[in-house]
Write a sequence for this structure.
């Protein structure tokens, strides 16, 4: 499905959000200012065409090593066309090919709800994240306030599939987008799940009245 929309993915992300997705990524990266070390091993998990990793480099400086990991070859191919500064790795986010405690920062933009199991996804993040490392989630969570309920239950099912179909020819992919949001965890339940996994939740911010949220969590330092 993602291979089929890769050629229009960036354009439709910007168009459907009125370019707010750009601001959301910037704000998500700024959550790490004065927190992450200056030279990091960075993973853009479920990174698609690499916009999150690119935004990180623009906002906080080029990482020591930058990896874009995604299940979709078509999306990764687009990431390589846009930037040669990151390694593109096709992989399963629940079973990544990396050794433990490798990354200082892991980003995930609109990917957690596409995993078969968000709980297992957090387990894998915890495995490959260094102690004291940060995981940033930018996501469309299940609606939990009046505005997001109105948006995702009334507006989004109408205009998102229509616009998506017009520009990509793949209406079913954008119908899936709406279903995946409504079927995902609320941000409150996601935070609770992260805490149950042993993460420290440092910051939770709503984007545009709860259309999306950005969540900053930290892997606890190991104690001797």
């Amino acid at each position: 499905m993602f291979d089929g929309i890769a050629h229009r993915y960036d354009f439709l992300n910007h168009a459907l959000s009125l370019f707010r997705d750009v601001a959301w990524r910037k704000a998500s990266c700024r959550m790490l200012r004065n927190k992450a070390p200056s030279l990091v091993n960075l993973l853009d998990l479920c990174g698609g065409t690499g916009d999150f990793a690119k935004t990180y480099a623009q906002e906080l400086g080029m990482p020591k090593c930058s990896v874009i990991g995604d299940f979709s070859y078509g999306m990764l191919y687009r990431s390589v066309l846009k930037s040669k500064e990151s390694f593109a790795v096709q992989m399963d986010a629940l079973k990544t090919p990396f050794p433990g405690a490798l990354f200082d920062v892991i980003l995930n933009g609109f990917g957690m709800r596409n995993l078969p199991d968000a709980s297992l996804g957090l387990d894998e993040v915890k495995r490959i994240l260094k102690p004291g490392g940060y995981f940033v989630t930018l996501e469309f969570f299940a609606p939990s306030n009046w505005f997001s309920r109105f948006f995702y239950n009334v507006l989004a099912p109408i205009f998102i599939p229509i616009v998506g179909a017009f520009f990509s020819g793949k209406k079913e992919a954008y119908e899936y987008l709406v279903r995946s949001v409504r079927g995902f965890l609320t941000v409150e339940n996601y935070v609770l799940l992260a805490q149950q996994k042993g993460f420290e939740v440092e910051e939770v911010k709503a984007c545009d009245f709860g259309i999306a949220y950005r969540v900053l969590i930290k892997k606890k330092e190991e104690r001797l």
Q: What stands out?
A: The mean pLDDT is 93. Strands lie at 41-45, 65-70, 87-90, 103-109, 129-139, 199-207, 212-219. The chain has one domain: 20-146+185-219.
